[in-house]
């Protein structure tokens, strides 16, 4: 079965929080039939209903499985505890998800091999629970997993070597490139472990990289990330997912341009 194009709904987080149904209607109007929800446990039923009403499926979703509390990607934490895996998978089943992907662990958890071993243990435990519910578990990277090195091997690859075969990877191609690693070569090394990619593009302009969220991201195909080549290097790919951490222009135009570009690659 060929890989599908999807969209990480975190891209549209502000619009979704103010108008869930209206925003998903716009997503559907831009040609998307699949989406990757975030923060779905607290709103599984209304989210499932809204997605369904607009003909959008949710084959994958983001939820924390290897952290005790929610941590923001800019490094600022909160005191909000994450729900146990069983609760996450129950919500995922409501949405018809096939894969639940842990979206983030903090950079300070990638300083030693022992820390990575603990992350792997937590993901492996979650995968065992998920298997009983018919749901796979995955992990999503940012740049720090690639910047961490152990005897010349990236932290993400160390993690992959420690994971149960049931745990899959969702590789964010933008963050791999920004982490100083060739996305094509990485996906060739990771092989069948990679079932999804965030096909995110950027200019990597040094003047824009100091900002958080990143200020250099552009529609797929307009930056320097080798999206087509990386997708071709992932033999088990199921999902190519549009995402923007930040974009100053019209987000709905940008996601549609990205979808069209990715659809062209996947055909």
Helix count, per DSSP? Answer: 12
Describe the main β-sheet briefly. 7 strands, parallel
> Compute the gyration radius: what is it?
17 Å
Q: Hey, roughly how much beta strand do the residues contain? A: 15-25%
Name the average pLDDT: 95
- N- to C-terminal separation? 12 Å
Can you walk through the features of this model?
The structure is a single chain. Helices cover 40% and strands 18% of the residues. The protein is an alpha/beta fold. The strands form 4 sheets. It has a 7-stranded parallel sheet with strand order 1-13-10-9-6-5-2. The chain has a two-stranded antiparallel ribbon with strand order 3-4. α5 (113-132) crosses α7 (155-162). The protein is globular and about 50 Å long. The protein is built from 12 helices and 13 strands. The mean pLDDT is 95. A hairpin with a 2-residue loop joins β7 (149-150) and β8 (153-154).
Task: From the structure above, extract its key features.
alpha/beta; 267 residues; 7-stranded parallel β-sheet; 12 helices; two-stranded antiparallel sheet; globular
What's this entry about, in short?
The longest helix has 20 residues, at about 115-130.
Task: Annotate the secondary structure layout.
Layout: E1 4-7, H1 13-18, H2 20-29, H3 44-53, E2 60-62, E3 69-71, E4 77-81, H4 85-94, E5 99-102, H5 113-132, E6 136-140, H6 144-147, E7 149-150, E8 153-154, H7 155-162, E9 167-172, H8 173-178, H9 183-190, E10 194-198, E11 201-202, H10 206-209, E12 217-218, H11 227-232, E13 239-242, H12 251-266
Helix pairs in contact: 5-7
């Amino acid at each position: 079965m060929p890989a599908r194009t999807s969209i990480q709904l975190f891209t549209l987080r502000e619009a979704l929080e103010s108008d869930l149904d209206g925003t998903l209607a716009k997503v559907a109007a831009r040609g998307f039939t699949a989406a990757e929800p975030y923060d779905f446990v607290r709103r599984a039923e209304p989210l499932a209903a809204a997605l369904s009403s607009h003909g959008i499926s949710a084959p994958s979703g983001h939820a924390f499985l290897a952290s005790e509390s929610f941590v923001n990607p800019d490094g600022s934490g909160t005191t909000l505890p994450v729900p146990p895996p069983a609760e996450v998978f129950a919500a995922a089943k409501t949405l018809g998800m096939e894969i639940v992907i842990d979206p983030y662990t903090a950079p300070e958890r990638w300083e030693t091999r022992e820390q990575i071993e603990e992350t792997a243990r937590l993901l492996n435990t979650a995968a065992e629970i998920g298997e009983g519910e018919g749901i796979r578990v995955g992990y999503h990277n940012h740049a720090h997993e690639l910047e961490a090195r152990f005897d010349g091997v990236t932290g993400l690859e160390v993690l992959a070597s420690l994971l149960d075969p049931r745990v899959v990877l969702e590789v964010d191609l933008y963050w791999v490139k920004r982490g100083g690693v060739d996305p094509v070569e990485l996906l060739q090394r990771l092989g069948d472990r990679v079932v999804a990619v965030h096909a995110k593009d950027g200019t990597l302009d040094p003047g824009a990289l100091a900002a958080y969220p990143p200020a250099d991201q552009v529609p797929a195909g307009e930056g320097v990330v080798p999206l087509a080549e990386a997708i071709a290097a992932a033999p088990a790919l199921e999902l190519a997912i549009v995402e923007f951490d930040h974009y100053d222009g019209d987000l709905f135009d940008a996601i549609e341009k990205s979808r069209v570009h990715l659809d062209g690659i996947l055909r």
